[in-house]
Amino acid sequence: MLAERRHGETPQKVFDNPFTADQLVLWRDFTGYEHAGQLAKRIDYLGKTAEDLSELMRGDIFQLHMIDSFKQEQFANFAFGAISTILPFKDLPPDPTGRFHPRQTNLKFAPILGFGGWALCGRAEPRMDDAVADEGTITLTDKDGTGLMIYKFNGRNIALCVEDFIADSGHCFVAGNWYVPTEAFAIKILRKAFDKKFGRIHLPTGGEWAILRAVKMTGYDPATSMNDEEYLSCLNVDSRKTPRQYKSGFIKDPEALEGDRPLRRSAYRGFHFEGMENEFGQ
Questions:
Q1: Is residue 163 pLDDT above 50, yes or no?
Q2: Spatial separation of the C-alpha atoms in residues 83 and 228, rounded to whole Å
């Protein structure tokens, strides 16, 4: 329960409290940045540890701002996703609108913020579209087969979360955000499964995944009328259509064809692979 102002304590006195001021600054930063690399750099500049952030986010002012954002339907996917890397689901204030109902899973995944200053350009969305069309993706599922994230092998090998879910760590992965695995074992498993024609995989242990940014359709394709939520909805449908295993071990890729020869799946991901880059000077 949020603490009440003590008898005789003026609102100005509350807001003059350094703890309150720090919460307001933190709220501004977490809702003002659109890329994890920028936000992580700002946090480093402020000298805040993970423990500092967790304490501030549990404070009354920060939590009241979260509740107000829920009510006004103004909670940006990235801001909520970034906050969820710090606070576990049990410490988030309840959504008074009742719209946020993340799926509980036993997946040993953990979302993190600001790994290596990595960033993501605006080509991620069109390359996801290309990968879906090419059968160049793999869908990560819950144990019942429900699609949670679509991992693409065209461009940077990253996943778009299409279903809100709580991992074994207690932290939420928020739909509409791009995440990237940071541990080699998970990357190797996904590559191997893709090469073996798997279209869906239940990965019980995935390690840490760094949040990058939210889906952003603005400026992506002047011909499309879809907004961010509509695009995410379409990909959620795609995640349900993905077969457990693709029929062919080859991909017909118009960008990489040598004559009429299709590429092996391993060659496809090798041809299109782009490594993550540090774009914010960290």
A1: yes
A2: 20
Cβ–Cβ under 8 Å, residues 217 and 234 = no
Q: How many Å from the N-terminal Cα to the C-terminal Cα in the chain?
A: 38
Task: Give the pLDDT of residue 123.
Answer: 85
For 39, 43, 63, the CA distances from 27, given in Å and listed in that order, are 12, 12, 9
> What is the C-alpha to C-alpha distance for residues 136 and 187, in angstroms, rounded to an integer?
15
Helices assigned H by DSSP within the chain: 11-16, 18-32, 36-46, 50-57, 60-71, 77-86, 124-134, 184-195, 228-241, 265-272
pTM as predicted: 0.87
Q: Which amino acid is at 32?
A: G
Q: What is the pLDDT of residues 197-253, one digit of tens each?
A: 999 999 999 999 999 999 887 655 545 567 888 888 888 888 898 999 999 999 987
**Encoded tokens for 218:** 């603005």
| Rounded Cα distance, 96 and 68, in Å | 9
How many other C-beta atoms lie within 10 A of the C-beta of residue 12? 7
Per the CB < 8 A criterion, the answer to whether 239 and 231 are in contact is no
Amino acid at 151: Y
As a whole-number percent, the residues of the chain with pLDDT over 90 amount to 51
DSSP state of 135: T
Nearest to 109 by CA among 8, 203, 42: 203
- Gyration radius of the chain's alpha carbons: 20
Q: Rounded to 5 degrees, what angle do the CA atoms 195, 199, 201 make?
A: 95
Q: How far apart are CA 80 and CA 178, in angstroms?
A: 13
